[in-house]
């Protein structure tokens, strides 16, 4: 009864309006058939143009075929767009739409909403959405068409996702607020996740060679985060894996300078998670994640960095890298000592960074110092002036690796 009382009835609904609604419902199947036929025709045209372009090496022909593909592609997208407005919209309005169609229209309006605030993002998002919608339709068609369409779909969406990431990279370099930067970081991670979840498996299937062999382990590692509910630690780890994959998949679309900023964001997120977590087990899990991020950041990104704004930073990193390579030598000799020495190196490195803003990072500084005490390279001295205690540095020789003072 309560549910019924919330309904709104239109008392002005006349006999003629009821008739119009009934006729509209009857005409929908006809409209669906007509739109489907037009889309099928436009789709065949764009697939033919795509295949012709990829089958020739003649440069003059390529130019003409590229224009042909652009023209047929534009008409194809227009047909899908018209199908949404003519068919799906009317079905949702008349309450005859499936859950898939309702969700499709909801996504359509969310993307359209971007048009006024960010036209470039809207342009890429809408194209990804439209061909993705038709891809779901094609999957129910004949195997031959599915195979043909997958090649076109994987190629076009890869181009679109690269364009989207390049757009975000340009935006993040602009003079924008910290809040806007955080929003763009989230969009970068979301875009990477969409591509790696939806498009990369199709690329694996189509190419069936060693092109992606070196990233299969990382992809499998990411895949375990696509099922179930994720906590904050899982989200940060997932984004770390996405960034690692991006260094191989989107080297030019997501420049090193932008990827570096994304890694720095993850480091900040992991530090905050450590100091905000009160449960010891979860805090240790967050700390382990932070150590992994520090290694990824230094080994996968900074080691490939060529241009440094400040020569002093480059020299500092060279010292870090030399110590890192030296520690790597004891990996097969004494694995436990290798892990310990690496942990000490990473803590010291990050401690030096957070010390530049001691007031902001005093909690993580205290956490790091306690870790160094546990690892035996610092001692905690108590006196009558403070309950927190003071720290002093100790040096000693251990397993071929010198533990220098922090």
Fill in the keyword field for this structure.
two-stranded antiparallel ribbon; 15 helices; mainly alpha; 3 domains; disordered N terminus; 406 residues; 4 strands
Description:
With 406 residues, the protein is mostly helical. The protein folds into three domains: 15-141, no CATH class; 178-303, no CATH class; 308-406, no CATH class. 73% of the residues lie in helices and 5% in strands. The chain is built from 15 helices and four strands. The strands form two sheets. A two-stranded antiparallel sheet has the order 1-2. It has a two-stranded antiparallel sheet with strand order 3-4. Helix 2 (15-54) packs antiparallel against helix 3. The radius of gyration is 28 Å and the shape is elongated.
Summing up helix and strand content along with how strands pair, one would put the structural category as mainly alpha
Main β-sheet: number of strands, strand sense, barrel status? 2 strands, antiparallel
**What count of helical segments does DSSP give?**
15
Based on Cα principal axes, name the global outline.
elongated
- CA radius of gyration is 28 Å
Low-confidence stretches: 1-32, 395-406
Q: Output the helix-strand order.
A: HHHHHHHHHHHHHHHEEEE
Distance between the termini: 71 Å
The total domain count is 3
Physical arrangement of strands within the biggest beta sheet: 1-2
In which range does the helix fraction lie? over 70%
Query: Which percent range describes the beta-strand content?
Result: under 5%
Task: Count the beta strands.
Answer: 4
Q: Name the average pLDDT.
A: 84
């Amino acid at each position: 009864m309560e549910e019924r009382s919330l309904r709104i009835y239109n008392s002005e609904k006349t006999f003629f309006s009821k008739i119009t609604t009934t006729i509209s419902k009857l005409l929908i199947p006809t409209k669906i058939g007509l739109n489907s036929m037009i889309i099928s025709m436009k789709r065949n045209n764009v697939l033919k143009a795509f295949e012709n372009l990829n089958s020739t090496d003649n440069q003059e022909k390529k130019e003409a075929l590229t224009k042909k593909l652009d023209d047929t592609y534009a008409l194809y997208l227009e047909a899908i767009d018209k199908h949404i407005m003519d068919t799906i919209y009317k079905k949702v309005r008349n309450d005859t739409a499936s859950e898939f169609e309702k969700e499709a229209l909801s996504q359509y309006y969310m993307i359209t909403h971007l048009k006024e605030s960010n036209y470039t993002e809207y342009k890429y998002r809408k194209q990804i959405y439209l061909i993705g919608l038709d891809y779901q339709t094609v999957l129910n068609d004949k195997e031959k068409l599915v195979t043909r369409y997958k090649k076109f779909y994987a190629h076009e969406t890869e181009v679109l996702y690269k364009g989207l990431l390049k757009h975000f990279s340009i935006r993040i370099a602009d003079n924008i607020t910290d809040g806007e930067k955080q929003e763009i970081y989230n969009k970068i991670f979301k875009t990477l996740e969409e591509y790696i979840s939806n498009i990369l498996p199709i690329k694996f299937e189509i190419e069936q060679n060693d092109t992606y062999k070196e990233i299969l382990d990382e992809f499998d590692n990411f895949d375990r985060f696509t099922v179930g509910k994720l906590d904050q630690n899982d989200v940060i780890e997932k984004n770390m894996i996405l960034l690692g994959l991006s260094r191989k998949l989107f080297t030019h679309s997501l420049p090193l300078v932008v990827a570096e900023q994304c890694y720095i964001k993850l480091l900040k997120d992991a530090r905050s998670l450590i100091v905000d977590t009160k449960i010891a087990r979860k805090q240790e899990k967050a700390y382990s994640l932070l150590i992994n991020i520090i290694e990824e950041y230094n080994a996968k990104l900074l080691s490939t960095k060529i241009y440094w704004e400040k020569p002093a930073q480059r020299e500092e990193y060279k010292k870090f890298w030399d110590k890192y390579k030296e520690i790597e030598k004891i990996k097969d000799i004494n694995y436990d000592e290798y892990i310990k020495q690496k942990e000490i190196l990473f803590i010291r490195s990050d401690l030096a960074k957070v010390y530049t803003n001691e007031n902001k990072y005093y909690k993580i500084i205290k956490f790091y110092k306690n870790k160094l005490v546990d690892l035996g390279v610092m001692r905690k001295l108590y006196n009558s002036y403070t309950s927190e205690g003071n720290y002093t540095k100790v040096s000693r020789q251990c397993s071929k690796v010198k533990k220098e003072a922090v």
